[in-house]
Design brief:
The protein is an alpha+beta fold and about 160 residues long. It has 5 helices and 4 strands. It has 2 domains: about 10-90, 3-Layer(aba) Sandwich (Glutaredoxin), CATH 3.40.30; about 125-159, no CATH class. A 4-stranded mixed β-sheet has the order 2-1-3-4, with helices on one face.
């Protein structure tokens, strides 16, 4: 640690001598990475416990009486076990605080279509309904209006 008091006091490595999932922990215990970890963190006591069954794990004890259990089931080599122990050495052992609140207001019936846009509220009801009414009159086949007749005459004149 760069500053402050190192919180990690003890690491208990649990592994099996024969199980395939414990291969990474067995390599770590036999490799010089364990001695390197102890040299970098002299305040930490590392204890290796051989279990006849179960998955490999590490139990970290901290100064504030915090305990963390981390599974090493998927640690396939000594380097990944070393990385997990270094991560535990850098933590404080305190439980996580609550997650950040959602920044948007919550309602009982949230909209599936998304948030309301104020551009719709700046138009009068007639302006909002005009495009819909034009579509409906063309679909139903009502008589053309004067505007549509003038537009059709202008198209014919251009040709």
């Amino acid at each position: 640690m760069n500053r402050g008091v190192a919180q990690l006091t003890r690491l208990d490595l649990g592994y099996s001598l024969h199980a395939g999932a414990s291969k990474g922990v067995r390599e770590f215990v036999a490799s010089p990475l364990l001695a390197e970890f102890q040299a970098q963190h002299p305040h930490v006591k590392v204890k290796a416990l051989v279990n006849s069954r179960g998955f490999p794990h590490v139990e970290a004890s901290y100064l504030n009486n915090g305990l963390q259990h981390v599974s090493l089931r998927y640690a396939q080599d000594a380097k990944s076990v070393h990385a997990a122990l270094v991560t535990l050495a850098g933590q404080t052992g305190r439980p996580l605080k609550g997650l950040a609140k959602w920044p948007f207001p919550q309602t009982r019936m949230s909209s599936v279509q998304g948030r309301w846009d104020s551009a719709f509220t700046l138009k009068t009801p007639e302006e909002q309904l005009a495009p819909l009414l034009k579509q409906q009159t063309h679909l139903i086949g009502l008589a053309p209006t004067e505007e549509s007749m003038a537009a059709a005459a202008a198209k014919v004149a251009k040709k």
